[in-house]
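hiii so my PI (J.) wants the whole complex modelled not just the main chain, which honestly fair. so below is everything: three entries, each one labled with what it is. i double checked the lines twice but i was tired so who knows lol
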Amino acid sequence: MKKSNISVLTGTHTLTGSQACAEGALSAGCSFLGYYPIIPSFDIVERYAERFSDCDGILIQMEDEISALAAVLGASWTGRKAMTVTTGTGFAQMAEHIGLGIMLETPCVIVDVQRDGPSEGIPCNPGAGDVMQARWGSHGDYEIIALSPNSPQDMYDLTIKAFSLSEKYRTPVVILTDTNICSKKEKIIIPDSKDIKISTRKYFKGKKDSYLPFQYDPEDLIPPMVDVSQGYRFHVTGLTHDERGYPVMNDECQELNVHRLVQKIRLFTDDIIDIEEEQTDDAELIVVSYGVTSNDALEAVKQARKEGLKAGSLRLKTVWPFPEKKITQLAKKIDNYIVPEINYGQIFLEVERCARGEATTHFLYHASKKVGTSDHILKLIKKTIK
Amino acid sequence: MSLRYREKPFGFEKPTTPKGELVIIEDRCKGCGFCVEYCPKDVLEISDKYNSKGYHPPEAVNEDDCVYCGFCQMVCPDFAIFTIVEETQVEKERREARKKEKTKV
Amino acid sequence: MGNSKIQKQDKHPMDNLLRMDRIPHIWCPGCGIGNAVSAFADALDKLDFDLDQLCVVSGIGCTGRVAGYIKVDSFHTTHGRAIPYATGIKLGNPKMKVVVISGDGDLVSIGGNHFVHAARRNIDLTVICVNNFIYAMTGGQVAPTTPIPAYTTTSPFGNFETPSNVPQIAEASGAVYVARWTALHMRRLTYAITDALQRPGFSVVEVISPCAMYYSRINRLGDGLDMMKFYYDNSVIKHGEPTDNLEIDYQKEIIVGKFVDRERPTFSESLQKWLKGQGRVHSESKS
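here's the output for the full assembly
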């Protein structure tokens, strides 16, 4: 059997954001894509469909989004890096299985190509309405990692990072993107495969009889994983469980379990969180943005600086876990935050919370038709700094 | 095949009752009564004693009649009763051979 | 001559397949799920299965707890989604044998969509559907398989909805092997499960099981043993019977047997054939 190793298309290409995402997945070694077709995420699948058979991958169109994520979780336990793609309506359906993925600590990547909502909304408009859903969509207490690219190159890079984080922290990772980025066509540079750094999941190396699926290492709170068919004969359940994986439904176990699932991410935010700061050292006002809005926000800040206004930009590449410390720290120095979003205020609530009254937080509704323009952000900057 | 061959069962002089043991794991029993009802030789009956969970396990009252058919083992939902059958050599060979064939209803 | 030994602890022949630290299991006295597990264990023993290559996936419900008692790689997933989860495992590692053991509500109600599509695609899964005509774990609510006019907690005046006919749904969706037996027909059930395990493709074995705590108690049908006696008196073996005759009427004849046994290319076979036609060959496993 000849295995092709063209999963990494090293070189310079002109690709859309969707295609870049698919290439990022292939470069990361994703070998399972279970999906349900929905506008606007199917472009990612189309690219993957052209390439998967070269790269030893599996593609399956499931009967709905719920089963798409279930199949991805199942495939992840066979040792494959698995991914699904969807949009807001589909993501809402996947909420239960995100909870299962977190409870079973299954690495996987969910790409949410956001669109204007609620419900069916406008399928081809960019949106950012799923930010809170990514964090709180499933029931119960948990932490999740969500990344937000702002360009096709970023899509490529953050897709690889998403796989890396999901494998390292044994958690589902959400990539929050939108139709605008996914349809934009830009130059992408794909590095050599040896330059791509990706973590792999921590495997258990002890005796088969001694494997306990949720016995974690105290340093990183992450239990080593195994694949099926290796003879470990493990059992895992979505019910509250002890380290053996058996359902033990008492309060102590619940507390320990949830505490660890949450702390597993919270204690390592320094490693996970990725933000880009522009000219924040002497800024009086900072524009906090993410996703496609960050392009417009950065443009507005540059323009404001040209006009002598001391504005800075903080771009969240990692939306969740939210960079609370940074926002609180910067709030002491500055007077105002501006949060433009293509929704009615989701990350704005977090910024306001973390600013703790030290800086006034202003929300700006960056309507989807205004994506690509920065006048109204600039206008608000001028108005606020005065 | 002549009739003479068919008179004798293959490998035996005459049929014999299997030998073996009947084992009841009392603490697993939940007193459902399936084994008692479906024993073809009426070997078992529900006893009066209690197991550690408060159920009445069965007891073998006609143990000499037991032919170790294994149906109690099959029909018990709790893995609480089983038989150990001493096989003759011929039976063992036959069983191995049957296992290799595709089993059909 | 025989002698019986009554012992506090001894090794049942199936103990190597069970998680002994969790036995005795949680199912009620007179429940037939234990029989389904026993038949499954027996079938694995007869086939001399490599248990490392077996995976059991179950959903939520009384039957959903089966995964927790069988000592193989097992998953207790969400309600109704055992089949897509199993699909992911099977496609991710085609060498494994993946068995879905779940209840009627889990497979045919919330999981109905997945049941139909997995059968349509002919994913190589073996599905053991334990049908007790009720949602037992949640307290006895009406199920899609509850016959007319049985009482349940949510049909206090008798169920009026036409019950699902599991073998018919399986056949219409494209399953390659469909059989139905009761918890009493242990030998035949074991043979059916061995058949289903060996058949490549989507095989369904429905096990009619008593529910002593809810279905038979609410309907004044006695306990588990009384239901077994009912199966003894009223089940009729009709192999090859057309599946549209297999609906279960309340306390009437239950037709059991093997109804569908055919061959169709499985999803993996079709995929491999397509890949070969494209000049590419797929690897079997990542691990």
